[in-house]
Amino acid sequence: QNCNIGFVGLGVMGKNLALNLADHGYRVAGFDLDAHKIQDVLDTEATERPDPSTEARIIGCSSMEDMLANLVKPRVIVVLVPAGSPVDAVCNSLIEAGLEADDIVVDCGNSQWTDTIRREAEYKEKFKFFGTAVSGGEVGARFGPSLMPGGDADSWKYLQPMWEAVSAKVDENGKPIVSNTPGKPVIEGEPCTAYLGPNGAGHYVKMVHNGIEYADMQLICEAYHLLRSLLGYEPEEIGKLFEKWNQGVLNSYLVEISADILQQYDHKTGAPLVDIILDSAGQKGTGRWTSISATQMGVPAGIISESVYARALSTLTGEREFAASKLVADVENGEVEAEEVEKAIEDALYCAKICAYAQGFQLMRAAEKEYDWKFNFSDIAKIWRGGCIIRASFLQKIADAFVENSALENLLLSDYFADAMASKQAGLRKAVVLAAQSGIPTPSFFSALAYFDGYRAEVLPANLLQAQRDYFGAHTYERVDAEPGQKFHTHWQEEGRPERKA
Ligand code: 6PG
Q1: pLDDT in tens, 101-115
Q2: Nearest 5 degrees, angle CA 8-CA 146-CA 134?
């Protein structure tokens, strides 16, 4: 009865997170419906245990009752099963197995935030339901993920020491401290986890993380596509260029892995591996949820949405093949200067990335009002500096911007990012012009530029739009010379066209 934490679900993520906890001195009681998975984690623990003469740090349980009997109270149980109904099925089985009101069930899956809000309320009388989203894939779970917790504030005090121990760590400059050696976890450094708020707050933040992840990935793909199509670069050359970019402001995990991917060759054919992979993108849905949530709240998150659509368009492989033979592009393919274009694309990627993060943070700003949360945006930027898929050096600058002004309405308005956009936007404009002239699809670059120009526009053509609405539907409009909120309607067809006055 002396285990600190229980696990239901010992698949890849559950297994790795359990081993991570064991490395940090916590005793784990694990259960899975598949006995092989239990055995697998026990075998791995035995091989990795620093001193084989000491007792096992993870025990396998034959049932949920057995697991509960082995946990100290209040019991903390991590659930790592597929999002959706399996989470509720586990919660109900745990209730039947004897869960008590003070016990804490932590959903570490990629659950939709609305489910977490519902579950927290639904299970209130039976136990404390808590959400913690995990980013970083299997390596992250094993050696230090970014953890995004949200739920009952009292339960956080039980989870905090464990979550801070197992999460990724960054040094005083915000750089990840990495050790991927079993039994030798990173102890020092600032943990990439922070309590984000009640009920669905953590899962919402993770969803936005994934929306940004979609945008980040798509923008890198567009940069690659431009370099290849405009300059005729081979994947390996682009990989080397990305390695160089990774030394500067674009330093990030996604640029790093893209550089590596582009330099790999297929074992079978010897061709660049990227050329062997079918150009049809999958998605599990978190980017789509982000786009839907933005649309529902009226937040402009076009880059994220375009990145979701780009994946959708890519899946129309048969149709695209036919369209390629049917639809002719009337394009100009002028001379381009390689070095200049390279620089423009690098700057374009940086500017578009800033805009995508600005949209993500703007979205969370709207969500905190909608759901009555109180986000600390510098904390969110900080916990994304290490462990997660969108980890990037510039997150330190985002954290600094929100420390300087916690009420910052849009990241683009911080001095640092306003200056970055001022000095590098020419690259984004050039990349978009070249893409348009050459017929290369770069929807997220286009969307980023449109967002930037739209956001900084003092006057937009929405005046004409309001007039159109009033014309056909009497929807009314406000006047620039009247009190805000005062509504006007013109009888467009009956009143005739008055003369222009001076
Ligand atoms: C992470 C990832 C992870 C997963 C994505 C993939 O933060 O570790 O986001 O959660 O890889 O959900 O999503 P798609 O299948 O939708 O690309």
Answers
A1: 999 999 999 999 999
A2: 30
**Higher per-residue pLDDT: 494 or 248:** 248
Tell me if 205 CB under 6 Å of ligand 1: no
| CA 45 – ligand 1 centroid, Å | 26
Which residue spans of the chain are classified as CATH 1.10.1040.10?
204-454
SS3 content of the chain, % helix, strand, coil (to 5): 55, 10, 35
Question: How far, in Å, CA of 65 to CA of 7, rounded?
Answer: 12
Ligand 1 contact via 388 beta carbon (within 6 Å)? yes
Closest C-alpha among 456, 461, 445 to residue 302: 445
pTM of the model: 0.96
* pLDDT in the model for residue 496: 80
307 lines ligand 1 (CB under 6 A): no
- The β-bridge relationship of strands 28-31 and 58-60 is parallel
CB 38 within 8 A of CB 66: no
Q: What pLDDT shows up at residue 261?
A: 98
Q: Whose CA is nearest to atom 17 of ligand 1?
A: 283
Ligand 1 atom with least separation from CA of 214: 17
Per-residue pLDDT, 1: 63
CATH number belonging to domain 459-502: 1.20.5.320
State yes or no: pLDDT of 183 exceeds 70: yes
The fold for domain 204-454 equals N-(1-d-carboxylethyl)-l-norvaline Dehydrogenase; domain 2 (1.10.1040)
Convert the pLDDT of each residue in 13-53 to its tens digit: 999 999 999 999 999 999 999 999 999 999 999 999 989 89
- Say how many Å lie between the CA of residue 488 and the centre of ligand 1: 48
CA quadruple 323, 325, 329, 334: dihedral sign? positive
Q: Is 110 in the pocket of ligand 1 (CB under 6 A)?
A: yes
Q: State the closest ligand 1 atom to the C-alpha of 210, by its place in the atom list counted from 1.
A: 9
206 is catalytic: yes
Which residues in the chain are classed under CATH 3.40.50.720?
A: 5-199
Active site residue 343: no
Ligand 1 midpoint to CA 136 (Å): 9
Its ipTM equals 0.97
* Domain 5-199 belongs in CATH node 3.40.50.720: yes
Our answer on whether the CB atom of 20 is closer than 6 Å to any ligand 1 atom is: no
Residue of minimum CA distance from atom 1 in ligand 1: 135
Q: Is 469 annotated as a binding residue?
A: yes
136 annotated as ligand-binding: yes
- Extract the tokens encoding 454: 């739209």
- pLDDT tops 90 at residue 334: no
